[in-house]
Task: inverse folding
């Protein structure tokens, strides 16, 4: 049986990698239980790893976030119209998943999701990502994004309520469909993860019904630190190489993963 500490390290690595790559975190988080019969650490551990990934993305985009905040402060001398517009688009794109999350939180947080349904969702949404990537004009920049286009991206991200869909994968799919270039698509998807993850954390905390034992602190800290460190490396690497590698490697990987899950 895998030890609790090693399991916490493994899950934090999985969370840090899959939260931001378009490869479905729910499918990967199934693997430890399937391969090792690993236990579920519960909602406190979920909060710790989500908080870790949130810290990572905020730290990586700290300059952009400060720019967005300044643009929305009436008393600030740095009222960039571009940053104000980007902030508005992020708000609009966040609304669908907030609504869906409130109405279908039981589905999105299900710990008993059927393996076959997750595998099939992984295959279907991987195919959709591939189709969007191949057919997209990729001619638009963030400066050309409209409120309607932002809403479309948000609606696609909201499909991540289905286990196996991949939040980042769906946001990227929506952005490619409306013609956003791959670099700005990735940047927008990462920035969009900030209010999305923050909303998920608030929802988990609001549900309460949990306590933290002193014996659990090592596991919680391991999850937080591990996911933050891996997520930061993932964000940095993805943004550096995405224009060179595109989406095809992730699509092929998801297809292989979906097939493996169906065969297990």
Result:
């Amino acid at each position: 049986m895998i030890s609790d500490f090693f399991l916490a390290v493994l899950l934090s690595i999985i969370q840090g990698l899959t939260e931001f790559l378009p490869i479905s975190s729910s499918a990967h988080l199934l693997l430890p239980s399937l391969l090792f019969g690993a236990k579920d650490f519960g909602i406190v551990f979920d909060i710790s790893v989500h908080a870790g990934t949130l810290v990572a993305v905020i730290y990586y985009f700290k300059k952009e976030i400060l720019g967005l905040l300044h643009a929305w402060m009436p008393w600030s001398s740095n009222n960039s119209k571009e940053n104000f517009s980007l902030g508005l688009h992020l708000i609009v794109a966040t609304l669908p998943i907030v609504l869906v999350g409130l109405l279908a939180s039981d589905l999105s947080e299900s710990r008993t999701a059927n393996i076959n349904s997750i595998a099939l969702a992984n295959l279907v949404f991987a195919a959709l990502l591939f189709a969007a990537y191949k057919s997209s004009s990729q001619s638009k920049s963030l400066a050309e994004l409209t409120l309607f286009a932002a809403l479309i991206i948000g609606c696609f991200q909201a499909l991540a309520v289905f286990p196996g869909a991949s939040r980042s994968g769906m946001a990227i799919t929506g952005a490619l469909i409306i013609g956003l270039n791959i670099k700005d698509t990735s940047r927008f998807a990462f920035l969009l993860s900030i209010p999305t993850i923050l909303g998920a954390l608030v929802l988990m905390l609001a549900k309460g019904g949990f306590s933290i034992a002193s014996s659990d602190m090592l596991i919680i800290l391991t999850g937080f630190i591990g996911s933050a460190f891996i997520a930061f490396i993932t964000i940095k690497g993805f943004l550096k190489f995405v224009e060179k590698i595109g989406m095809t490697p992730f699509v092929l990987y998801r297809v292989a993963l979906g097939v493996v899950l169906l065969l297990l």
